[in-house]
Design goal:
heterodimer; A: 447 residues; 5-stranded mixed sheet; 20 helices; globular; B: 284 residues; MetI-like fold
Chain lengths: 447, 284
């Protein structure tokens, strides 16, 4: 075991060094690229010349951002369309791509869904517009998230490094200390539920976004893609580390089965039924705006880990991509560049509770020192910014993650429903994903 | 009259009571919940009143939220129902009458096609229809909803069956002998006798169009053309994920406002239904 662990560490260090070398490489090539600057200029020219583009998003800040953009570039008109949230949006996007017309110029795409649109060539590689020179302005994990097979398919809008959000009032009432490791978390779950059977440490009825993020944090790398070859291994060491803990929680019925984002869930967050959440750093905005009942009760701590060393994963977050169907991709790229890079746009995004992907904003004193009353004056952004710096490297999603997430309930969801081994569910999931991948023309291997 | 002396079946009564509760409890929940503000909705028990009485505030907010888009959705829904369900009723009536009352070659083939069409769920055709309409450049326009709604094979079948019995051939013969043209016979004799059947088909088509969700979901990506179903589900989805902004109170109030016209339509058209049933019983 010991050698294995050390081996793993060496591998991680090597990857990190390699990553740095690559980063240095690409930034230098980026600057030499922008010396030629023909394409970055074409973006500026398009912005000055003006035109009309369509932008699909469901981010609530978009309306204000578009208004500010149109003020900055009066000749550009942006048709803002909310075509739906999440899957509805992606279905429409995919239909329009398939139909060959009707897609917007710019669309919001969550990081997990990006490969699905980027790999088949539906999106424009923004490297040609000189956007790669902005690497230094974003956190490494989000910069990685907007890349698919060396192509740059957007600029990061927000990020969701995971942390532990907990109801301090409930924790204090039952004498529970904030867990630093997953073993402590498990013990806390038992203690809480035994003391009050109506209360749960958290809720999870089988959510693919959460499960993949948990596997990510545990060091699992179940998906990798190389051209048309996809490798899937949902039984690797990291995955099993996660299921080792989560199987216990599930079998001992320590997880509330309230579906996430339902009205019941919001209610349970307010009245203490759900005592903690392990989720992305964008959660404070949601709590403040929509769980007003629990003001002053919630607090933030680093995500528990397996060995006590700080490490976390990303959960959620979006980018904006330019569609190949766009008649004016240079202008669309200009809008994307402004939207997720211009100070005024980022300010609008952050003011309404977004969590930044830009290092300057993460490190800004005003951001780190903010002590919201909702969290009884805790400087929560210190915890969350620290989390942004400890995101585990080397994660990638499947090139058909939307499909994968849609069949999660049919496979892993069954384990949740019956309170049985999650590993068995994961093996079923893997089988379904391999079958589907092969049907879609990928060569899928079990890793 | 013998029924009066029969003992009541406690099992049936119990079953019907359960069914009644099953039908009415969600409705009661909807009405009660519509009186609550968003915070009260999440902090008070679901099946009883709690918090300040906010029904009128909720209605006002529903009608004005996002520049009054709800009213636009109401208008769209009415347009789709009038043009779509109205058109479907007209087509089903004319075609059903024609098939029932005129013998022509290929009638059996038409019959088979229509029966087959009833068997295909609309959901299965949604994506092919989308690609077809996309080629025609009609997606994101009201036509994408209205044209597919015009096709109502079940309504056609109903009228056909109804017309076979309700419109006696002798009457049509008599009209022909009196010198009336076929169109005039259809408009003056056929339509009147078919009225209860037409009301039934209109009601079915109306409910189907009013509740139509999947087709507009796929066809439309501009909220300006959404019907209420898709609009409300979009509001509901605001509670999801990063940047979530749940507005359950508006979704609930919007749903309540949305079912009012349907209930009104049922109550109004019920009279036609009853007269239709009565007419049938006398004829026998």
């Amino acid at each position: 075991m010991k050698t294995l662990v050390r081996h793993g560490k060496v591998a991680v260090t090597l990857t990190a060094a390699f990553g740095l070398a690559l980063a240095g490489c690409s930034s230098s090539s980026g600057s030499s690229g922008s010396a030629g600057a023909g394409s970055a200029d074409s973006v500026d020219a398009a912005l000055q010349q003006g035109g009309t583009i369509t932008y699909w998003t469901w981010t609530p800040q978009a309306e204000q951002q578009v208004a500010a953009f149109e003020k900055a570039y009066p000749k550009v008109k942006v048709n803002l369309v909310n075509a739906g949230t999440g899957n509805t949006h992606y279905t429409k996007l995919q239909n329009a791509i398939k139909a060959g017309s009707g897609a917007p110029d710019v669309a919001q795409v969550e990081y997990f869904a990006l490969p699905q649109f980027a790999l088949p060539g539906s999106l424009v590689d923004l490297n040609q517009y000189g956007l790669s020179s902005m690497e230094k302005d974003y956190t490494p994990s989000t910069w990685n998230a907007v890349h698919v097979a060396n192509g740059l398919f957007g600029l990061p809008q927000d990020s969701g490094p995971m942390a532990l959000f907990y109801n301090k009032a409930v924790f204090d009432q039952y004498g529970i200390t904030v867990p630093k490791t997953w073993d402590e978390y498990l013990a806390a779950a038992r203690k809480l539920h035994n003391a009050d059977p109506s209360k749960y440490i958290t809720s999870d009825n089988g959510d693919p976004g959460f499960a993949t993020s948990m596997i990510w944090q545990a060091g699992g790398r179940p998906f990798s893609t190389d051209g048309k070859t996809v490798t899937i291994n949902l039984q690797d060491q990291g995955t099993k580390k996660w299921t080792g803990v989560w199987n216990q929680l599930l079998k001992e019925k320590l997880l509330s089965q309230i579906p996430g984002w339902s009205d019941d869930w919001y209610r349970a967050l307010g009245n203490g039924t759900i005592a903690s959440l392990v989720t992305g750093a964008w959660m404070p905005g949601v709590l403040e705006q929509s769980v007003k009942d629990a003001a002053g009760k919630w607090a933030v701590a680093p995500m528990p880990t397996y060995d006590g060393q700080p490490v976390t994963a990303e959960n959620g977050g979006s980018t904006q991509s330019v569609l190949k169907q766009s008649a004016n991709p240079a202008l669309a790229a200009g809008f994307v560049r402004w939207l997720n890079h211009d100070e005024s746009s980022i300010k609008i995004f952050l003011d309404s509770g977004g969590f930044p992907a830009t290092t300057a904003d993460l490190q800004a004193a005003s951001f780190k020192d903010s002590a919201p009353a909702y969290f009884s004056g805790q400087k929560i952004n210190e915890v969350l910014t620290a989390a942004a710096g400890t995101v585990a490297k080397g994660w990638s999603y499947l090139p058909y993650e939307l499909y994968a997430n849609s069949v999660f309930a049919d496979t892993v969801g069954k384990s949740y429903l019956n309170g049985t081994d999650i590993d068995a569910g994961l093996r079923d999931w893997q089988k379904a994903l391999m079958d589907y991948g092969n049907q879609q023309g990928f060569t899928v291997k079990a890793g | 009259m013998a029924g009066r002396n029969q003992p009541r079946s406690p099992v049936l009564t119990a079953a019907m009571t359960i069914y009644l509760l099953y039908t009415l409890v969600p409705l009661a929940w909807l009405v009660i919940s519509a009186t609550k503000s968003q915070p009260a909705l999440l902090s008070t028990p679901g099946l009883w009143f709690g918090g300040p009485f906010a029904l009128f505030d909720n209605i006002a907010e529903t009608l004005t939220y996002n520049n009054g888009i709800f009213l636009r959705w109401v208008g769209n829904t009415v347009l789709y129902v009038v043009a779509g369900a109205g058109g479907a009723t007209v087509l089903a009536t004319a075609a059903g009458y024609g098939l029932a009352k005129y013998a022509f070659a290929g009638r059996r083939a038409v019959f088979a096609v229509i029966l087959g069409a009833i068997a295909i769920p609309g959901t299965a055709l949604a994506v092919p229809t989308f690609l077809l309409f996309s080629d025609l450049g009609l997606t994101n326009t009201p036509w994408a909803i209205i044209i597919p709604s015009l096709i109502h094979p079940f309504g056609l079948y109903l009228i056909w069956v109804y017309a076979t019995d309700a419109v006696p051939d002798e009457l049509l013969e008599a009209a022909r002998i009196d010198g009336a043209g076929e169109v005039r016979i259809f408009l003056t004799v056929g339509l009147r006798l078919l009225a209860p059947g037409i009301a039934t088909v209109a009601l079915f088509a109306m409910v189907a169009t009013w509740n139509n969700y999947f087709l507009p979901l796929i066809m439309l990506s501009k909220p300006d053309w959404y019907p209420l179903t898709v609009g409300l589900s979009q509001w509901n989805a605001q509670a999801l994920g990063a940047n979530a902004q749940p507005i359950y109170h508006l979704v609930i109030t919007g749903s309540l406002l949305m079912i009012v016209p349907l209930i009104a339509a049922f109550l109004l058209l019920q009279r036609f239904w009853q007269s239709g049933l009565a007419a049938g019983s006398v004829k026998q």
